[in-house]
Write a structure and sequence with these properties.
- The complex is a heterodimer of chains A (270) and B (269).
- Chain A has 270 residues and is mostly helical.
- Chain A has one domain: MetI-like (MetI-like fold, Orthogonal Bundle).
- Chain A is flat.
- Chain B folds into two domains: 129 residues, P-loop containing nucleotide triphosphate hydrolases (Rossmann fold); 66 residues, no CATH class.
- Chain B is 33% helix and 24% strand.
- Chain B is globular, with a radius of gyration of 19 Å.
- The chains are: A mainly alpha (270), B alpha/beta (269).
Chain lengths: 270, 269
């Protein structure tokens, strides 16, 4: 018998190079937004844009450093983060559950579906005064307005995911003797997982939009409040620090969700 | 609790007086399409009996309702009228035509799925799954994801999953229909080997006359829609069978001709 064919170490290295390149691309992708900052710095330094309205990132960084050193910024970040996190969970959990339930049961979908369709188009910011009226100017009103925004995104994305489950998977479960709850847990939930993560990412983005607006109007703390208060006192650098901070919060939230997606949805393409 | 089947070599020919495992009487299946206001008769007056431990193939043109009959036996659809009796303690296990492997589970988890639903202890699950992976030649792929597998491998997973909780009746809906001829031949041989070891009652649907004669003890020929059984032909080849060698047998080609003639003269509707 002839010797079995084997690959040389160089050939194996060539095979592995593709996944190494992929890893490199992922690392670069974390830093690509920094390019935009660099462009801004150049434009501001060269006077291409008005420095009173668009201070250079380096001068904004100076302001940011002062606010960091005085720990002031962390109070605002913490206040905003807490509101977003609590509101997000309060909205996402019922959104996912109801999306799964309505997706699997067409009678419930027919009866309750129109209620959600009717409520969905209401702009969440438009009802903020109403929510402030009901829940007061404290944190509760922020949780509620975020939860409402997150709820609808999660509900519709999950519902869409469940409605797309190939019938064959439901047949497999039924033939294997799955109960209703088991079908829910072992078929509907994993099938809808890629859509749920799409919803989670969209919802994270809109959470920060909603919290910024909510803190403009009715808060004494938080990054949104800081932006609004800085604007009113024409502290433009402070305002930009706020904008950068809230953007960064959104950015890192999405990164975190993408990492979770890779962990929990390893079968989907990213 | 899993009752392991006795896997010592059994007499592979089914005795003529074996007890029936499946009895189907005057089965009718009709669909109503609301949008077109149309009634479709999928299967009309289907009658047949399958004996315990028998391997029966149903052949028929596409759309003749053979899949519908199988889905009714599997409990996935309700008949319109008529009756069927399954002499078994558990619902029959089904192997589907399309890729039915769950993409979010590994191969081993897919095979273990019915056991997991029944709440079988993890240790017992592992042992049983290892046994099935061995039987279907998947041991090296236990931790692979379905998207890494070929079509033939995926169907092996489906077969392993259908066998894992050891139900008496196995229903197979063109399981090898989407595979290339060579893979199909290999899987047919393996299915025969597994069937000879486990003694399951098998109802196997195919549109391939060749496949039916290769596998079955009896071939039921169905007419075009609305499908009904037009012939019940015994397949005389001794077991264990060699799927390649049996093609040298003249009887194989005589039977092929016979079935084709029946399919060709079935009245069109």
């Amino acid at each position: 018998m002839s010797k079995p064919y084997t690959l040389s170490p160089e050939q194996i290295a060539r095979l592995k190079s593709h996944s190494r390149r992929e890893k490199l691309h992922r690392t670069i992708s974390y830093f690509s937004p920094l390019l935009l900052l660099l462009l801004w710095e150049i434009c501001s330094q060269t006077g291409l844009i008005d420095r009173r309205f668009f201070p250079a990132p380096s001068s904004i960084a100076g302001t940011a450093w002062q606010m960091t050193a005085s720990l002031e910024i962390f109070d605002h970040i913490w206040a905003t983060m807490k509101r977003v996190a609590i509101g997000y969970v309060l909205g996402a959990v019922p959104g996912i559950l109801l999306g799964l339930i309505l997706g699997l049961s067409s009678p419930i979908r027919r009866v309750l579906g129109p209620i959600f369709s009717a409520l969905y188009p209401v702009p969440k910011i438009a009802i903020l005064p109403l929510i402030l009226l009901i829940f007061g100017v404290g944190d509760a009103s922020k949780y509620v307005v975020i939860a409402i925004g997150v709820f609808f995104l999660m509900f519709y994305n999950t519902l869409g995911g469940v409605m797309q489950i190939p019938q064959i998977y439901l047949d497999v479960a039924r033939n294997a003797g799955a109960s209703r709850f088991q079908t829910f847990r072992y078929i509907a939930l994993p099938s809808a997982m890629p859509n749920i993560f799409t919803g989670l990412k969209l919802a994270a983005g809109s959470s920060y939009i909603i919290i910024a607006a909510a803190e403009f109007l009715g808060a004494r703390s938080g990054v949104g409040f800081m932006i609004w208060a800085s604007w009113q006192t024409f502290a433009v650098s402070r305002m930009f620090v706020g904008i950068v901070v809230i953007s960064a919060m959104g950015y890192f939230t999405i990164l975190l969700l993408e990492a979770l997606e890779r962990k929990f949805v390893p079968w989907a393409k990213h | 609790m899993i009752v392991h089947s006795d896997e010592i070599s059994r007499d592979v020919s089914v005795p003529a007086d074996a007890a029936p495992a499946i009895e189907v009487r005057d089965l009718v299946k009709a669909f109503y399409d609301v949008s077109g206001d149309r009634v479709t008769l999928a299967a009309a007056n289907v009658n047949f009996t399958v004996k315990r431990g028998e391997f029966v193939c149903i052949v028929g043109p596409s759309g003749c309702g053979k899949t519908t009959v199988l889905r009714i036996l599997a409990g996935l659809e309700q008949p319109f009228s008529g009756e069927f009796r399954l002499h078994t303690s558990a619902q029959p296990a089904m192997v589907f035509q399309e890729a039915s492997v769950l993409p979010w589970l590994t191969v081993a988890q897919n095979v273990a799925f019915p056991l997991k639903l029944k709440g079988v202890a993890a240790k017992e699950q592992r042992a049983r799954v290892a046994e099935l992976l061995e039987l279907t030649g998947l041991t090296d792929f236990a931790d692979a994801r379905p998207h890494q597998l070929s079509g033939g491998m995926k169907q092996r997973v489906s077969v392993a999953r259908a066998l894992v909780d050891d139900r008496d009746i196995l229903l197979m809906d063109e399981p090898f229909g989407a595979l290339d001829e060579q893979t199909r031949l290999v899987l047919q041989q393996e299915l025969l080997r597994i069937w000879e070891r486990t003694g399951k009652t098998v109802v196997f649907i195919t549109h391939s006359v060749d496949e039916a004669l290769t596998l079955a003890d009896r071939v039921l020929v169905m007419s075009p829609r609305p499908g009904t059984i037009v012939a019940d032909l015994p397949v005389p080849f001794e077991r264990p069978r060699d799927v390649v060698e049996m093609r040298r047998d003249k009887r194989f080609w005589d039977l092929t001709y016979e079935v084709w003639r029946l399919l060709a003269v079935s009245p069109e509707h």
